[in-house]
Amino acid sequence: MTTTSKQTRTFDLGRYKINRLGYGAMQLTGPGVFGDAPDRAKAKKVLQEAVAAGVNFIDTADAYGPHTNESLIAEALHPYKKDLVIATKGGFSRPGPGQWVPNGTPGFIRENIEGSLKRLKVDTIDLWQLHRFDSNVPVEETLGPVVDAVKAGKIRHVGLSEVDVAQIGQAEKIVPIVSVQNLYNLGNRKWDNVVDYTAQRGLAFIPWYPLASGPESMAGKISSIAARHNATTAQVALAWLLKRSPNILLIPGTSSVGHLHENMQAADIVLTDEEFAELSK
């Protein structure tokens, strides 16, 4: 596992300079990521506060709601600030709360892209990400409509989610890839090799579920380091990720303005090499 002593606050994602602490909008939906946000006015306020606090990267998906999350973002933030990058995803059917079914059929992917353009009120999607490879559909077929959308100027950059190194290579034979979004946090480092691979290649790595701090056995270790920095456990978990690799972009999600600002303050916490090593054991 590699790390860096120098901590940068931004990352160049394709043509965009991204503040590494962004915002994931998934929690601004109903239970099971299904249906609209229970308090739409409060949800819009969280999005507006995020942008006011310096967030210029917001992650959403066609499947969040489904559809309601993208519409909420447009309602809260459109017309968008010039440097605001909105990343969305496609490739999941949502039959009900908590249910996620990969669907990589070309017709469905094309429908996802066109729907996202309309709901986000944009002519071009800044970053479109494939939720999952569908084991029932060759990825060449799945990404066909994505290639068409890139050529048509409807998608600027393309990313992947929950992929290994081989799958990244497979997709790159079809369309240029700029980012990978996998489950990764202080307590779950299954994708260490993908973090290092993407860093070497200059691709962004976007951990989902970034606030998890690991098993109870780590609690004492984390709390002592948090006390040293006058920080919370969640802030330390985010600070560890920022130090882990300079290509990591964070998208912690919350439906609370207070929690949003707490997460944003994690960018000011720089762990020492010794603290990072202690947490990484």
Q: What spatial form do the alpha-carbon principal axes imply?
A: globular
Q: Which segments are poorly predicted (pLDDT under 50) over 5 or more consecutive residues? A: none
Task: Return the average pLDDT rounded to an integer.
Answer: 96
Name given to the CATH architecture: Alpha-Beta Barrel
List the total number of helices: 11
- For this structure, what is the CATH homologous superfamily? NADP-dependent oxidoreductase domain
Radius of gyration, taken over Cα atoms and rounded to an integer in Å: 18 Å
Percentage of helical residues?
A: 25-40%
Quote the beta fraction.
5-15%
Helix-strand makeup class: alpha/beta
Name of the CATH first level: Alpha Beta
For the largest beta-sheet, the strand count, sense and barrel status come to: 7 strands, parallel
CATH topology: TIM Barrel
How many discrete domains? 1
Distance between the termini: 11 Å
E-strand count: 11
Strand order of the largest sheet: 3-4-5-8-9-10-11
What is the succession of H and E elements? EEEHEHEEEHEHHEHEHEHHHH
Please tell me about this protein's structure:
- The chain is globular and about 55 Å long.
- The strands form three sheets. It has a seven-stranded parallel sheet with strand order 3-4-5-8-9-10-11, with helices on one face.
- Strand 1 and strand 2 form a beta hairpin.
- The protein has eleven helices and eleven strands.
- It has a single domain, classed as TIM Barrel, CATH 3.20.20.
- With 281 residues, it is α/β, with parallel strands linked by helices.
